[in-house]
Amino acid sequence: MKLSFNQTLRQSSLENDLQLCEKHGYDAIELRLSFIKDYLQNHSIDELATYFQRHHIKPLALNSLEFVTFCNEKDYSQIKADLAFLCEVGNKIGCDTIVVVPSFNIGDYTMEEIKKESVRVLNDLADYAEQANMRLAFEFVGHPDCSVNTFDQCEDIINEVNRESVGMVLDIFHFHSLGSNIEDLRNFDPNKIFVIHIDDADDFPRGYLKENIHRLFPGDGAINLDLILSTLKEIGYHGAVSVELFREEYYTWDPEKFIKVSREKTAEVVGKHFTVATQA
């Protein structure tokens, strides 16, 4: 299994993350929209494409179009502009996946209304993305205030959309935090899992966990990672896992130490169930 790094370190940069991930043996990287825009202040997309052509590390996904549902016209216009930008970047650097995140704190909408809006927006965004040979990975967020917050709810939406270009982000923290059902994962089509975010969490009750406070390195917390990873192997998942860690404590770390430790801990946990390349 390939190991990826998700750019979460606000004290770092795209240039720095690329060099450190290459140095410490990652196979892939998730590029964040804000980091890409900062990079392009002094570089070009062609330079980024050349970097990937000349190095082992490759782009896994572009992260992300956020809060895409129940938008006002101005906000949705910006989402469509960011989609066009990410499609252009993806085509040039050889990355075909864009992460898409539903909205929070939407007010009084029923589950059926949320489903209808999510399907409408994903179809609209996919109409454009498909023209650029890009696909969309919809990410449920396991927090009570998120409009799509469990695996089965996300699965229902993706099934209703029913497009090859639309799949899921399985974030293990979010899967755990509101108690998504492992049987739902066991019965899911692994080809519809476009991205996996791996992490761990403090041992708090469902609904209490907050991702910028309670995420931990894989293996350091209360999530049953062995059960989830063994289930992924059982259903035939063959993609990458991308370590994603938002935690205030980690923002004080030296980026190289953080990137190195992230890979070591992820490889140890994943290596119990999948073959992981030896670190260079």
TrEMBL record:
Residues 18-256 form the Xylose isomerase-like TIM barrel domain. The keyword Cytoplasm does not apply. Keywords: Isomerase. The keyword Glycosyltransferase does not apply. InterPro entries: IolE/XylAMocC-like, Xyl_isomerase-like_sf, Xyl_isomerase-like_TIM-brl. The lineage of its organism: Bacteria, Bacillati, Bacillota, Bacilli, Bacillales. This is Sugar phosphate isomerase/epimerase. One of its GO terms (molecular function) is isomerase activity.
